Prior knowledge:
Helix content is 48%, strand content 16%. By secondary structure, it is of the alpha+beta class. The chain folds into two domains: 1-149, Winged helix-like DNA-binding domain superfamily/Winged helix DNA-binding domain (Arc Repressor Mutant, subunit A, Orthogonal Bundle); 152-226, Roll (SH3 type barrels), CATH 2.30.30.90. A hairpin with a 5-residue loop joins strand 1 and strand 2.
Amino acid sequence: xxxxxxxxxxxxxxxxxxxxxxxxxxxxxxxxxxxxxxxxxxxxxxxxxxxxxxxxxxxxxxxxxxxxxxxxxxxxxxxxxxxxxxxxxxxxxxxxxxxxxxxxxxxxxxxxxxxxxxxxxxxxxxxxxxxxxxxxxxxxxxxxxxxxxxxxxxxxxxxxxxxxxxxxxxxxxxxxxxxxxxxxxxxxxxxxxxxxxxxxxxxxxxxxxxxxxxxxxxxxxxxxxxxxx
Length: 229
């Protein structure tokens, strides 16, 4: 996080940083980074994505492979990693220090992440700890892939009836979904018992003595680890 990170940061625009971060997040989620997914994720037109990716390839941030696969170079991965960490640190600062609702910090952190300097990043990492997670349960380093490696997390939709689970991470890019979870008092750390699955794959679970019902779409956006005993 020294001068090299600063110089690389200065060479990239906010738009390029957003592309690089989106590519790395797709990798961490097990999705193939391709132009169509970037277009949807960043809400830009396919021609704009094509032009941006070609420009980043010329600058040495990405490589273009077969079937439209986009991969990060070492330089591009470094920038993307720092941006993801800064985003999550901003979320933690907003939620844990300033008291903002965990359902709102993602959108605010999107604005702040580009303004966090390497020096402030270092201070925030020292304050919160490198092993901590964002308010939505994503580890500061490694993302969903790290949770899979460390805890074997799976979507709640895949858990069998009768199993006890703990929520480890939830999808954070939809504030309406987070508001829905907040009303149900479901967040990272909550423990549930899966009681029933309907024909339409609605999940019925008990959390803190209350019964909740989650449609398949919601259950696929909640990652849990199974509890033994």
